[in-house]
Amino acid sequence: MKVSVIGAGTMGNGIAQVFAQKGTDVILVDTFPDAIKKALETMKSSLEKLQRKGAIREDPNIVLSRIKTETSLSALSESDVYIEAVPEKPEIKKTAIEAISSVARPDSIVASNTSSISINLLSSYCKFPQNFVGMHFFNPVPVMKLVEIVKSNRTSEETLNKVMSLVTLLDKQYVVSSDYPGFISNRILMPLLNEAMLALEQGISTKEDIDKTMKLGMNHPMGPLELADFIGLDVTRDIMEVLYREFGDHRYKPPIILRNLVNSGKLGRKSGEGFYKY
């Protein structure tokens, strides 16, 4: 089996890594050479950390040797599975899926790692929509055990079964969701993050105490503001905007404090500052 991952960012390189760890040949594609360079460095660091912890036995360099990189989709015609992991913008997803469809075989699975955009909508950009499905991995991909599988109205049972088997191959668990905005995970998570941000914005408490309440009072491993920083505040805002547009419900409307942070370039851990400084 050969897997192609389109987009070498945080999610893309994580997805490529977990397939390579299971002995699968992977092609990682990104139009930006610097993104590919950073992805290879990130994967090497991740694999070395897993090796030190005893989580993997194989030499990181051998795992990395299974990952080939490309800056063009033209080399991908032989892949059995395509997973797009480009930024959470409908127009960028559309371009990526149409490009994949131009090279994919009629029997290849085409999956999107979207966390909020309609799978029915995205499947309309795919030449063979019965082969299209959502595969929402969670960050960090090598550590998190869940994959949210999202089926469109046209996803075939054969495709669904194949994707379930793929997730099992990766030693991960899956849940299956119909195509509703936010699916299962973000439909539940985003109102929680939103309320935490509003509590801070309205001066109800400090960010530290808001997070402490959820960690020690609700047994969450990470507070909601800390989690938003971890996800990326720009990504969090984008997901909220999709859900707010789809539902028209103020529970999903990005609060001013979030929009101000994103507009000032404070995106969370990846930029060095968000609700917290890193």
Q: How would you characterize the overall build of this protein?
A:
This protein has two domains: 2-178, NAD(P)-binding Rossmann-like Domain (Rossmann fold, 3-Layer(aba) Sandwich); 186-269, Orthogonal Bundle (N-(1-d-carboxylethyl)-l-norvaline Dehydrogenase, domain 2). An eight-stranded mixed β-sheet has the order 3-2-1-4-5-6-7-8, sandwiched between helices. The model has no long low-confidence stretch (mean pLDDT 95). It is globular and about 55 Å long. It contains eleven helices and eight strands. 46% of the residues lie in helices and 14% in strands. Helix 1 crosses helix 2 (33-52) and helix 7 crosses helix 9 (224-231). It is of the alpha/beta class and 278 residues long.
Gross CATH architecture of the largest domain: 3-Layer(aba) Sandwich
Radius of gyration over all CA atoms, rounded: 19 Å
Helix and strand content put the structural class at alpha/beta
Query: How many β-strand runs?
Result: 8
User: How large is the share of residues in beta strands?
Assistant: 5-15%
For the record, give the distance between the C-alpha atoms at the N and C termini, rounded to a whole number. 40 Å
Helix share bin = 40-55%
The fold-level CATH name of the largest domain is Rossmann fold
Assembly level = single chain
Give the biggest beta sheet. 8 strands, mixed
Strand line-up in the sheet with most strands? 3-2-1-4-5-6-7-8
- Poorly predicted runs are none
Write the layout of secondary structure elements.
Blueprint: E1 2-6, H1 10-21, E2 25-29, H2 33-52, H3 60-65, E3 67-70, E4 81-84, H4 90-101, E5 109-112, H5 119-123, E6 132-137, E7 146-151, H6 157-169, E8 173-178, H7 185-201, H8 207-217, H9 224-231, H10 233-247, H11 256-263
Parallel strand pairs: 1-2, 1-4, 2-3, 4-5, 5-6, 7-8
Antiparallel strand pairs: 6-7
